[in-house]
Amino acid sequence: xxxxxxxxxxxxxxxxxxxxxxxxxxxxxxxxxxxxxxxxxxxxxxxxxxxxxxxxxxxxxxxxxxxxxxxxxxxxxxxxxxxxxxxxxxxxxxxxxxxxxxxxxxxxxxxxxxxxxxxxxxxxxxxxxxxxxxxxxxxxxxxxxxxxxxxxxxxxxxxxxxxxxxxxxxxxxxxxxxxxxxxxxxxxxxxxxxxxxxxxxxxxxxxxxxxxxxxxxxxxxxxxxxxxxxxxxxxxxxxxxxxxxxxxxxxxxxxxxxxxxxxxxxxxxxxxxxxxxxxxxxxxxxxxxxxxxxxxxxxxxxxxxxxxxxxxxxxxxxxxxxxxxxxxxxxxxxxxxxxxxxxxxxxxxxxxxxxxxxxxxxxxxxxxxxxxxxxxxxxxxxxxxxxxxxxxxxxxxxxxxxxxxxxxxxxxxxxxxxxxxxxxxxxxx
Length: 429
Hints:
The protein is built from 18 helices and 8 strands. An 8-stranded mixed sheet has the order 3-2-1-8-7-5-6-4. By secondary structure, it is of the alpha+beta class. 55% of the residues lie in helices and 12% in strands. The chain is globular and about 75 Å long.
């Protein structure tokens, strides 16, 4: 089966949609005072529903032979509230009868779709272009993959097993399918008559979706140096400094991910939403740290201010500054709440040894054979700091005792305090 045949097969399948979004659309479309903007905002949360709506509007019945429509607001105007509501009733039935076999893969693709859509719109807006086609292009950029993992049958089973066996993604796709899932994204959009979304013009020589994907990858990998270089390259085009661009990208990313139902995000089971960080207080704390005299006698004050800022303004449960001794890493300063009766913070080793060699990482502490080991994880963050010409200091934050959901904003707060503290300690006399 070639890629076009697979696209035709998947086009005839019924694909699951986000039930939480369907319920909201049914509610707003039953209210005649609802605006198309409201409905469009909810529809655009779901790539599958967006594709369905665009396909209908671009069909011969509705388009009347006009050029392909790439504006969701215009499409909704053509279809009307009644037709959108009919679509949603069908989707409710669909949601109750069809489920994605590979749910986790589909959720990750939904997340990527929303991130790409949001950042593509952000970049297009910076170029003063109509952002909506670029948003839709990002939103539907993973549609073939989503369809495949929902309804790929035995092909999906075989590919999933190959990936579990450790085969590299594109190699596995070529060996099992004879094409890549990226090619399937394009083929399915072409089959549905939405191929124009793949051929949007570049803006000032920038391929918007490709650029958005690159920035998202660097943000996910916490590649701060790569982001800085890329934003410096883009700065002349946007006539905005790289710091403001980075802040805009990060805020836009959080807004995009907020479109997903809360319980569909990774690692959210049984958790409640955490109160946001205080950006103004963070900036004040960082300014106060920077204002202190640059001498060794102020080390303890600077560190304690950073720990206090991470807990009060960065919303971490507690923060620790540790020193490397002959017996392992031992706590020197700390701030924040502790569980009653909990032992003092300490770790014996960082594994693997190069975990923190470049910048900071998301981490967790595990006890293995009686030893406390710092490893990769999602409940905290840590980074090495320079002391006496050696990286013998360690900044660590955690929310492992909290029932709250960790926000990306908390990791951004850690990044700010870590980099400021690293700079100050490296320059102390």
